[in-house]
């Protein structure tokens, strides 16, 4: 009986997952070579092709472009950043095009953001000091020791943290070509060498600094690398390396920990309901109302400080992304960077669908091979639809990035010179061969994660 219920649950979850990817996937037996049927646009009466498995839309009036359903922001931090971007994103883009991407080392907004973050960390330090004071002042009082343990625990939970490596990095001895490529690109950008290179299972990439010495680390998603050509790979690596030289304070633990601490405090203390008579008597509900009012006031204070830090830091953070785009375009070429952005934007849903197909169909080839096949088979009309969406909506890779259409406009405004670094075909093949040893492990990790986190099995 449990097996039957589990199968039904899996089927329903998988069906909902297919529906979520509706319009972004290709059915298993469909190829772009098939001649599409035609239908009439209900808005302008133009003839439009119908390609099975993809969104039917009108290129004349943009009917049914079907923007991505990105849903609500994942957390309070994303909500604030997206709000700031909608208000001032256009002005920042024009400023970048006119004045370039140089980020000042010191600015009023940056100093104020650091001061606000310092207040957060001082509060954590104050909690620790108060807990120690209670222990020293009342060593024999059980009640005071309980209070002391509470404050010390709270101080520990909200302490500043150094970023840590999320997984084991590649070794220079086993992956010499990979590190050589990174070293050559850092040399072109006049940057320090990258200390750690990691390969993960995400359709993404990121730069971070870890430990007390703030070692430079870059993590690249193997699914993303699997569909990039050699210059797009150079653009991806250049973009991430640039984050280490563009003064992006978001990459440092001091500010990011303060933001995380504030968001955690806000989530913990904000009351769901101020007056609750459904679960409590009227007397208890009245008493809890005043307690919830105090907690709500504290939560509002946390939100105000978080709002201030995010807004003070938003401009520098967005400029850092533009600067990284400019570096990538200079090193790899503008066309390679633009192509990379398109693949970052358009490949994610195809990747998710490929994962589900491989899980459901054991006869299909390896996951990344299936993903490459499906990505290459996306028809030109679907690519055009996604291009229009990028132009007409405020789609972005995540909350900390500028709108994708703005990034494309900025890259196109740059002087298109020859790429500063050309990756040879031979070295690129060696790079791919080195990473191929990780494919089986990464593919297994991807499918296990989807079974557990998406399908619930």
UniProtKB/TrEMBL annotation:
Membrane-crossing segments per the record: 111-136, 142-158, 282-309
Keyword Nucleus: no
Gene3D superfamilies listed in its UniProt record: Metalloproteases ('zincins'), catalytic domain
Keywords carried by this UniProt record: Cell membrane, Hydrolase, Membrane, Metal-binding, Metalloprotease, Protease, Transmembrane, Transmembrane helix, Zinc
Domain Peptidase M48: 193-413
Entries under InterPro entries matching the protein: HtpX_protease, Peptidase_M48
Cofactor: Zn(2+)
GO biological process: proteolysis
GO function terms (MF aspect): metal ion binding; metalloendopeptidase activity
Alphabetical list of PANTHER family matching this protein: PROTEASE HTPX, PROTEASE HTPX HOMOLOG
Protein name: Peptidase M48 domain-containing protein
Protein source organism: Cohnella endophytica
């Amino acid at each position: 009986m449990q097996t039957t219920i589990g199968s039904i649950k899996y089927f329903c979850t998988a069906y909902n997952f297919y529906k979520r990817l509706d319009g972004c996937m290709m059915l298993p037996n469909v190829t772009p070579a098939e001649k599409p049927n035609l239908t009439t646009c209900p808005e302008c009466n133009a003839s439009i092709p119908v390609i099975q498995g993809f969104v039917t839309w009108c290129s004349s009036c943009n009917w049914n472009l079907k923007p991505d359903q990105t849903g609500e922001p994942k957390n309070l931090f994303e909500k604030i950043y997206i709000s700031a971007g909608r208000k001032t994103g256009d002005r920042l883009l024009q400023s970048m095009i006119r004045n370039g991407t140089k980020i000042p080392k010191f600015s009023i907004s940056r100093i104020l953001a650091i001061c606000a973050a310092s207040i957060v960390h001082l509060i954590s330090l104050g909690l620790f000091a108060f807990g120690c004071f209670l222990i020293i002042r009342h060593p024999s009082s059980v009640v005071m020791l309980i209070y002391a343990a509470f404050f010390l625990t709270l101080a520990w939970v909200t302490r500043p943290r150094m970023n840590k490596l999320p997984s084991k990095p590649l070794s220079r001895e086993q992956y010499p070509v990979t590190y050589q490529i990174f070293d050559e690109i850092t040399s072109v950008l006049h940057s320090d060498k990258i200390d750690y290179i990691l390969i993960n299972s995400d359709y993404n990439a990121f730069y971070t600094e870890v430990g007390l010495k703030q070692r430079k680390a870059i993590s690249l998603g193997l699914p993303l690398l699997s569909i990039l050509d050699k210059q797009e790979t150079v653009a991806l690596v250049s973009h991430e390396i640039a984050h280490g030289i563009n003064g992006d304070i978001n990459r440092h633990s001091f500010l990011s920990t303060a933001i995380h601490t504030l968001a955690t405090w806000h989530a913990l203390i904000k009351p769901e309901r101020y007056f609750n008579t459904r679960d409590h008597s009227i007397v208890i509900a009245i008493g809890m109302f005043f307690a919830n009012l105090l907690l709500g006031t504290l939560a509002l204070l946390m939100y105000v400080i978080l709002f201030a830090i995010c807004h003070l830091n938003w401009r520098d953070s967005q400029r850092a992304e533009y600067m990284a785009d400019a570096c990538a375009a200079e090193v790899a070429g503008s066309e390679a960077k633009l192509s990379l952005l398109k693949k970052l934007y358009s490949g994610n849903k195809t990747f998710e669908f490929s994962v589900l197909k491989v899980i459901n169909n054991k006869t299909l080839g390896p996951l990344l091979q299936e993903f490459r096949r499906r990505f290459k088979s996306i028809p030109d009309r679907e690519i055009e639809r996604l291009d229009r969406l990028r132009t007409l909506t405020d789609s972005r890779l995540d909350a900390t990035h500028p709108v994708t259409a703005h990034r494309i406009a900025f890259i196109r405004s740059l002087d298109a010179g020859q790429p500063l670094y050309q990756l040879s075909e031979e070295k690129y093949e060696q790079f791919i061969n080195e990473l191929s040893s990780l494919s089986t492990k990464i593919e297994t990790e991807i499918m296990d994660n989807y079974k557990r986190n998406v399908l619930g099995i």
